[in-house]
Amino acid sequence: MKHRFLADPLQQLTHAYRSHMRRAMQASGVDLPVTHVRAMKGVALIPKCTAQLLAVRMQRDKAQVTRVLNELLGAGLIVKRGNPEDGRSQLLELSAEGQALMLHVAELESATAERMTRGLSEEQIEAFIRTANQITDNLND
């Protein structure tokens, strides 16, 4: 296999996945950019989440993440509370509305995963996940 052609199928897969998710979200009434959904996932998954931790996880500068967080706060999808361990920072959590939205997004992602893996065996799916994780690790070293 010629490695120089590896980028093409990766870009096609990424584009197809994002396009499908964007259409599915719009069709179900979710009107949020992908960056906002990623931020909400981070808030949900990072223990004692702060804007700084989220910026590191998303590999974005803190100013960009802060802008997204302010929009999510304004929409009532996340809440801030004081950080008892560090008075200079605030902890981020999903609001009840944000939790409900993320459950809905998880359902859309699950349906998309079902569609993506149609016709693939469990072994093929597991091999793909291992391969994709190894490639990611190689690039992040």
Automatic annotation (TrEMBL):
Residue ranges of domain HTH marR-type in the record: 3-137
Keyword Flavoprotein annotated: no
InterPro entries reported for this sequence: HTH_MarR-typ, MarR/SlyA-like, Tscrpt_reg_MarR-type_CS, WH-like_DNA-bd_sf, WH_DNA-bd_sf
GO MF annotation terms: DNA binding; DNA-binding transcription factor activity
Organism of origin: Halopseudomonas litoralis
UniProt entry keywords in alphabetical sequence: DNA-binding, Transcription, Transcription regulation
GO biological process: response to stress
Presence of keyword Mitochondrion: no
Protein name: Transcriptional regulator, MarR family
